[in-house]
Design a protein that fits this description.
With 351 residues, the protein is of the alpha/beta class. It has one domain: TIM Barrel (Alpha-Beta Barrel). 34% of the residues lie in helices and 10% in strands. It contains 11 helices and 9 strands. Strands 2, 3, 4, 7, 8 and 9 form a 6-stranded parallel β-sheet that branches. α1 packs antiparallel against α11, α6 packs across α7 and α8 packs parallel to α9. The longest helix has 19 residues. The protein is globular, with a radius of gyration of 21 Å. The relative contact order is 0.19.
C-alpha cells in the first residue's frame, strides 16, 4: 500500500476515535487537574486581613496541634454551624450526594434516578465539567443540585489562599458556561477544611457542604480489600434512626455508581424523603432564582436497583480516571483508546 494512502487511513482512524470522546466545553480553560491560575480581579473578593492565622498544612499529614483553635475537620470533624452544612435538619429527610463527576458512569446513574423520580446533589470537579458539559446539562435538566467541588481536587488546607480562590472561581465559571447557573454551595475535597479555608469560602459567598454519613466508596479505586457490600451494609444500618442525614458517595468509580441504586432504595424503603441539599436545608441552591424540589414517589415500573451491575457500565466503555480519590484524570481520551489507535497504526504501517 502506498505510504500516502497509509497516512490518510491512519488519520481517518484517529479522527474516528477523537470523535468518540466527550465534547469539551467551549472556551479557554486552565490545564485540567492542575492548580489553575488566579485572575487579578478575583483577588479583591477576599480580604486577607480577615483570614484566621491557621497554618498551611503539609500534604503528608495534618498538624492537629491547633485542631480546636482553628476547627480542622480532618483532625476532629470539627464544624462551624454558621458556615458548615453537615446534615438535613429535619427527621426522615436525606440528602444523597455524589462527588467527583461528571464521569463515564454518571449517565447510567442518572437513568436510574430519573426512573425512580429521585433528586440528589452532585458535587462536580471543574476539570470534569470541561470534559463532559453535556452530562452536567443533563444533571441540571433533570432537577438535581450542582455544587462546586474545586478545579483539581486538592486538600484545601495545604494550598495557598490564591489557589483556593482560583480553584473555586474557575469551577464556578465552568459551571456557569456549561449550564448557566452559579452554585451557592461548595464541598471541600476530602472534607479538608479549617478556619482559614472557611473564611475564604464564605467571603466568596458560598455555603460549605460536608456530610455526616460516609460510604468510603472512594476506597474501591485503590484498596483491593474494599467490599462493595459495605456500601449497602452501611445504609442498612444508617436508616435505623430517624434523624436527617447527608451521605457521601462518588459517581467517579464503577463500584460506587453500581451500588448507588440499591442505596437509594434502602433509604426510600426506610421512609426517608430524599432531597437535594438546598431543599432539605431551605437554602438557595444558586445565585439565580431557581427552586429545586424533593424526590417524588417512584413510579410503579421504576428500576428496582437492587442489582446495580448495569449501572457500572461506562458510557464510553473505558474510564479516563486514575484510581485515586485525589487525582481524577484530565484526559479527553482514555489510555485504552489511545493504545488501540497506536496498535492500529502499527498494524497499518506493517502491511
Amino acid at each position: 500500500m502506498h505510504l500516502a494512502s497509509l497516512s490518510a487511513l491512519f488519520t481517518t482512524v484517529l479522527l474516528i476515535f477523537l470523535s468518540l470522546s466527550e465534547a469539551a466545553l467551549p472556551g479557554t480553560w486552565p490545564t485540567l487537574d492542575q492548580a489553575p491560575p488566579m485572575k487579578p480581579e478575583w483577588a479583591k473578593l477576599v480580604d486577607l486581613k480577615k483570614l484566621p492565622k491557621a497554618p498551611v498544612q503539609t500534604a503528608q499529614a495534618a498538624d492537629c496541634s491547633k485542631a480546636v483553635e482553628f476547627c480542622i475537620w480532618s483532625c476532629n470533624t470539627c464544624i462551624r454551624n454558621a458556615s458548615d452544612v453537615v446534615a438535613c435538619p429535619n427527621n426522615k429527610e436525606w440528602g444523597i450526594s455524589y462527588d467527583d463527576g461528571p464521569s463515564p458512569y454518571t449517565p447510567a446513574l442518572l437513568d436510574f434516578l430519573k426512573s425512580t423520580n429521585t433528586k440528589v446533589t452532585f458535587a462536580v470537579i471543574g476539570s470534569r465539567v470541561v470534559e463532559r458539559p453535556e452530562i452536567l446539562q443533563r444533571i441540571k435538566d433533570e432537577g438535581h443540585e450542582i455544587v462546586i467541588h474545586t478545579w483539581s481536587h486538592p486538600s484545601l488546607t495545604t494550598v495557598s489562599t490564591q489557589q483556593i480562590i482560583a480553584e473555586l472561581k474557575w469551577t464556578e465559571l465552568a459551571i456557569q458556561t456549561a449550564v448557566g447557573l452559579t452554585p451557592k454551595f461548595m464541598r471541600p475535597p476530602l472534607g479538608d477544611i479549617d478556619d482559614r479555608v472557611r473564611s475564604i469560602i464564605t467571603q466568596l459567598g458560598y455555603k460549605i457542604l460536608l456530610w455526616d454519613r460516609d460510604t468510603f466508596d472512594w476506597k474501591s479505586g485503590s484498596d483491593p480489600s474494599y467490599q462493595p457490600s459495605w456500601i449497602t451494609g452501611n445504609f442498612t444500618q444508617w436508616v435505623t434512626d430517624s434523624k436527617g442525614h447527608i451521605s457521601l458517595e462518588h459517581d467517579l468509580y464503577p463500584v460506587g455508581a453500581a451500588n448507588a441504586p440499591a442505596a437509594v432504595n434502602i433509604v426510600r424503603n426506610a421512609g426517608y424523603t430524599i432531597k437535594p441539599v438546598s431543599v432539605c436545608t431551605g437554602l438557595q441552591p444558586y445565585v439565580e432564582n431557581v427552586q429545586l424540589v424533593a424526590s417524588g414517589p417512584a413510579p410503579p415500573n421504576a428500576t428496582d436497583g437492587t442489582d446495580g451491575t448495569a449501572n457500572a457500565t461506562s458510557t464510553n466503555n473505558t474510564s479516563s480516571y486514575n484510581s485515586s480519590s485525589n487525582s481524577p484524570s484530565s484526559h479527553y481520551l482514555s489510555s485504552h483508546a489511545l493504545l488501540i489507535v497506536l496498535i492500529i497504526s502499527m498494524a497499518i504501517f506493517n502491511l
